[in-house]
Amino acid sequence: MQDKKTIVLGVIGSDCHAVGNKILDHALTEAGFNVVNIGVMSPQEDFINAAIETDADVIMVSSLYGHGEIDCRGMKNKCVEAGLEDVLLYVGGNIVVGKQEWKDVKYRFSAMGFDRIYPPGTTVERALEDLRADLYKEHKAAV
Amino acid sequence: MDGFLFIDFGSTFTKLTLVDVNKDRIIATSKSHTTVKENVVNGYERALAELRSKVGGEINIIKRMACSSAAGGLKIIALGLVPELTAEAAKRAALGAGAKVIKTYSFQLNDDEIEEIKNSEANIILLAGGTDGGNRKTILHNAKMIAKHNIKIPIVVGGNKSCTDQIKEIFKDDIEYYITENVMPKLNKLNIEPAREVIREIFMENITHVPGMEEVENRISQVVMPTPAAVLRSAEILAKGTACEPGIGDMMVVDIGGATTDVHSASDGFPTKSSILLKGLEEPFIKRTVEGDLGLRYSAKSLYEGSGSFLLKKYLVGKKYNISYEVENRNSNADMVPENEEGRYFDESLAKVCVDLSVKRHAGSIESVYTPNGMVFYQEGKDLQNLSSIIGTGGVLVNSENPRSILEVGLYKDEEPDSLKPKNPKCLLDKKYILSAMGLLSMIDEDKAVRILKKYVVEV
User: Which residues in chain B are contacts of A93 at CB distance < 8 A?
Assistant: First the structure.
């Protein structure tokens, strides 16, 4: 891997689930990413400000308490406004209330501008594969 | 008698403090009007003559040291990227260096802004932006703007370290610049010491631009730091103590002046209760905030017309005053000294407003958020509830018959449970106005400075 890619990681909204956040932090760092963890209970603005200052490549949003859909609304627009149109948006956890058809949920989040949307129970490996595919595209092509 | 002489060139007064070399005592203090327009040496000579007449006998001055806030003090412009992050970090670094922050700019500068900077009275520009390895675009753009407009103000570069080589190339020999460590190397991590030190060095080199200062430097003493930086140093050693002299613990200094009210706190400010989340940019142990709209003379009008009007009426309740007249009179006559009880009471009421608002703005706050898991609290800024002492300094407190009543206004109130102000601190008074002098003495002998501070800063 050439440059270390930077990921801003955090749990959005009034959500204080810290365990998954710590696991992701550890796993992503271990996998060679530069992780900027803004922790739990983070508003959209904190993700965006952190991404600006650290020149991040990906913003990875976790939400576990069911209110993710409300918390994530308008986030892509704010990113665009802040000059982060090229920063990838990932989201995962229990991002909606109750049991809903995953296909619909995924559609709604991708309409909101998220690039990768993960259902409950996704493994870290899956996210790592996607990160590599998304971030090292050009690299792969060159090889 | 052998003494150390400390000089404080203030915007209004030049103050001298003579300290006994062999004993922990202040031999005498004196003051005279600062004479920036003619030559600062004149005011110094007058104060020295007064000091000599007070002492009576012969004084053998072993060492002299000076600090200065004359001619408006050290003025800095802070440049950063995101307002709450590197721009705020740069501002805190400048304040911590004892400067007056004229303005803070965020994101990429445009032509109008750079023009404004060019025409400003700034002595130093602190250029920050990006964490180490983070954003490069903005700081490079701003460096190019500085070079393009050929800004003749010294630049302190405290931004993304990955850009320093490029910035050196941009500035070349045309711009006077100093590279130092990033003020925010990692997100929300504050690193202001290195920038502070560089700013102090530039201040020492450039102070000679004040009329007569060159003569002061040649004949009298080197001006080693801005006055607020000396006060900060005093606060820090008094709180922490030294290896041989224990300190008094976490504390706060409130300095009520004519133009500004400064608050310095020496405390980590971590949450005093459990299960509270910390938010935002890290706080420095020794933090300084300056309220430019709160003061007893130049800023009396902004105090009354701005945020302080309601409070002023509250503190004046039961007294009859023509408030607008009193305020106007103080605003236009900076040298005005109240001659009677009414005048003093009005000054003290203004002082209460200054303390009330400045401490509230300095202290952190706590916010409660309802979540599906119950109530969660988060804290922004410093929790100062457990401070051991609050120290007052400034003429209005020293001359007051009841300085405690003024300082107490800054303490925790049940009506404002979210504001993390000190709860039960001792109220102390810097009766002889020695804080800046002891900051200077700490450069020679820290233990002695702590001992004298503990002796002369008294409970009221």
Answer: none
Average pLDDT, chain B: 93
* Sequence spans of domains, chain A: 6-142
CB contact under 8 A, A52 and B370: no
Fold of A6-142: Rossmann fold (3.40.50)
List phi, psi (to 5°) of B397.
Answer: -75, -45
For residues B432 and B225, is the Cβ–Cβ distance under 8 A? no
β-pair type (B223-226, B60-68): parallel
Task: Give the domain ranges of chain B.
Answer: 2-71, 73-205, 231-293+356-459
pTM attached to this predicted model: 0.89
Buried b (16+ CB within 10 A) or exposed e, B82-103: bebbbbbbbbbbbbbbbbbbbe
Distance CA A129, CA A90 (A): 13
A&B contacts, CB < 8 Å: 63
**Looking at the domain that runs over B2-71, which CATH code has it been given?**
3.30.420.40
Give the span between the Cα atoms of B232 and B439, in whole angstroms.
7
Sign of CA dihedral B182, B187, B190, B191: negative
The residue ranges of DSSP E strands in B314-382, in sequence order, are 365-371, 374-380
Cα–Cα dist B442/B4, whole Å: 12
CB A64 within 8 A of CB A24: no
Q: How far apart are CA A100 and CA A97, in angstroms?
A: 8
Separation between Cα atoms, residue A11 and residue A19, nearest integer Å: 10
DSSP letter assigned to residue B77: E
Catalytic residue at A17? yes
Query: CA torsion angle for A122, A123, A127, A132 (degrees, to 10)?
Result: -150
Q: Please, which residues bridge with residue A11 across strands?
A: A62
Name the CATH topology of B73-205.
Rossmann fold (3.40.50)
pLDDT above 70 (res B441): yes
Touching check for A41 and chain B: CB below 8 Å?
Answer: yes
Q: Which of A40, A55, A65 sits opposite B130 (nearest CB)?
A: A55
What pLDDT band is residue A2 in, cutting at 50, 70 and 90? low
